[in-house]
Protein backbone atom coordinates (compact mmCIF):
# COMPACT_ATOMS: atom_id res chain seq x y z
CA UNK A 1 0.00 0.00 0.00
CA UNK A 2 2.94 2.32 0.67
CA UNK A 3 3.96 1.80 -2.95
CA UNK A 4 0.65 3.28 -4.07
CA UNK A 5 1.01 6.50 -2.08
CA UNK A 6 4.69 7.16 -2.70
CA UNK A 7 4.42 8.12 -6.41
CA UNK A 8 1.46 10.36 -5.66
CA UNK A 9 3.23 12.08 -2.82
CA UNK A 10 6.30 12.64 -4.97
CA UNK A 11 4.12 14.07 -7.74
CA UNK A 12 2.61 16.45 -5.22
CA UNK A 13 6.07 17.38 -3.95
CA UNK A 14 7.39 18.04 -7.42
CA UNK A 15 4.40 20.23 -8.12
CA UNK A 16 4.99 22.22 -4.96
CA UNK A 17 8.79 22.55 -5.14
CA UNK A 18 8.52 25.90 -6.87
CA UNK A 19 6.10 27.03 -4.17
CA UNK A 20 8.63 26.41 -1.42
CA UNK A 21 11.30 28.47 -3.17
CA UNK A 22 9.15 31.47 -4.05
CA UNK A 23 9.13 33.89 -1.11
CA UNK A 24 6.33 36.37 -0.45
CA UNK A 25 4.23 35.12 -3.35
CA UNK A 26 3.86 31.67 -1.79
CA UNK A 27 0.20 32.04 -0.84
CA UNK A 28 -0.82 33.23 -4.31
CA UNK A 29 1.06 30.40 -5.96
CA UNK A 30 -0.40 27.90 -3.53
CA UNK A 31 -3.93 29.03 -4.24
CA UNK A 32 -3.24 29.05 -7.99
CA UNK A 33 -1.84 25.50 -7.82
CA UNK A 34 -4.80 24.39 -5.69
CA UNK A 35 -7.20 25.87 -8.23
CA UNK A 36 -5.38 24.11 -11.07
CA UNK A 37 -5.47 20.77 -9.24
CA UNK A 38 -9.16 21.23 -8.45
CA UNK A 39 -10.01 22.06 -12.06
CA UNK A 40 -8.25 18.91 -13.24
CA UNK A 41 -10.15 16.81 -10.72
CA UNK A 42 -13.41 18.56 -11.62
CA UNK A 43 -12.93 17.70 -15.29
CA UNK A 44 -12.44 14.03 -14.52
CA UNK A 45 -15.07 13.59 -11.81
CA UNK A 46 -17.69 16.23 -12.71
CA UNK A 47 -17.74 17.97 -9.35
CA UNK A 48 -20.77 19.97 -8.28
CA UNK A 49 -20.20 23.60 -7.33
CA UNK A 50 -20.26 22.79 -3.62
CA UNK A 51 -17.84 19.91 -4.07
CA UNK A 52 -15.54 22.14 -6.12
CA UNK A 53 -15.32 24.66 -3.27
CA UNK A 54 -14.64 21.96 -0.67
CA UNK A 55 -12.04 20.17 -2.81
CA UNK A 56 -10.27 23.45 -3.54
CA UNK A 57 -10.10 24.24 0.19
CA UNK A 58 -8.76 20.75 0.81
CA UNK A 59 -6.11 21.23 -1.90
CA UNK A 60 -5.01 24.60 -0.47
CA UNK A 61 -4.70 23.05 2.99
CA UNK A 62 -2.77 20.06 1.63
CA UNK A 63 -0.32 22.19 -0.34
CA UNK A 64 0.30 24.44 2.67
CA UNK A 65 0.90 21.42 4.88
CA UNK A 66 3.33 19.95 2.34
CA UNK A 67 5.31 23.19 2.29
CA UNK A 68 5.46 23.37 6.08
CA UNK A 69 6.39 19.70 6.40
CA UNK A 70 9.15 19.96 3.80
CA UNK A 71 10.64 22.93 5.61
CA UNK A 72 10.38 21.27 9.01
CA UNK A 73 11.73 17.85 7.99
CA UNK A 74 14.19 18.85 5.25
CA UNK A 75 17.10 17.32 7.17
CA UNK A 76 15.38 13.94 7.68
CA UNK A 77 14.33 12.42 4.32
CA UNK A 78 12.97 9.22 5.87
CA UNK A 79 10.72 11.11 8.28
CA UNK A 80 9.67 13.43 5.45
CA UNK A 81 8.73 10.46 3.28
CA UNK A 82 6.70 8.91 6.09
CA UNK A 83 4.92 12.15 6.95
CA UNK A 84 4.08 12.88 3.31
CA UNK A 85 2.64 9.38 2.89
CA UNK A 86 0.49 9.94 5.98
CA UNK A 87 -0.63 13.29 4.62
CA UNK A 88 -1.57 11.72 1.28
CA UNK A 89 -3.64 9.05 3.04
CA UNK A 90 -5.38 11.71 5.11
CA UNK A 91 -6.02 13.78 1.97
CA UNK A 92 -7.65 10.83 0.25
CA UNK A 93 -9.74 10.08 3.32
CA UNK A 94 -10.98 13.67 3.37
CA UNK A 95 -11.56 13.60 -0.38
CA UNK A 96 -13.67 10.47 0.00
CA UNK A 97 -15.96 12.37 2.37
CA UNK A 98 -16.54 15.02 -0.32
CA UNK A 99 -16.89 12.89 -3.46
CA UNK A 100 -19.70 10.55 -4.32
CA UNK A 101 -18.76 6.87 -4.69
CA UNK A 102 -18.69 6.95 -8.51
CA UNK A 103 -16.55 10.10 -8.44
CA UNK A 104 -14.16 8.47 -6.00
CA UNK A 105 -13.94 5.46 -8.33
CA UNK A 106 -13.00 7.80 -11.20
CA UNK A 107 -10.38 9.48 -9.00
CA UNK A 108 -8.96 6.10 -7.96
CA UNK A 109 -8.83 4.94 -11.58
CA UNK A 110 -7.10 8.16 -12.61
CA UNK A 111 -4.42 7.53 -9.99
CA UNK A 112 -3.95 3.98 -11.25
CA UNK A 113 -3.64 5.24 -14.83
CA UNK A 114 -1.13 7.89 -13.75
CA UNK A 115 1.01 5.34 -11.92
CA UNK A 116 0.87 2.91 -14.83
CA UNK A 117 1.91 5.70 -17.19
CA UNK A 118 4.76 6.94 -15.00
CA UNK A 119 6.15 3.42 -14.60
CA UNK A 120 6.78 3.13 -18.33
From TrEMBL:
<protein>
    <recommendedName>
        <fullName>OmpH family outer membrane protein</fullName>
    </recommendedName>
</protein>
<keyword id="KW-0732">Signal</keyword>
<feature type="signal peptide">
    <location>
        <begin position="1"/>
        <end position="22"/>
    </location>
</feature>
Amino acid sequence: MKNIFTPLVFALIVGSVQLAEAGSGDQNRTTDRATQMTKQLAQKTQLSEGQYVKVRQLNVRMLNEVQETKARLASDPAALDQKLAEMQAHYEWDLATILWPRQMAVYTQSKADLMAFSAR
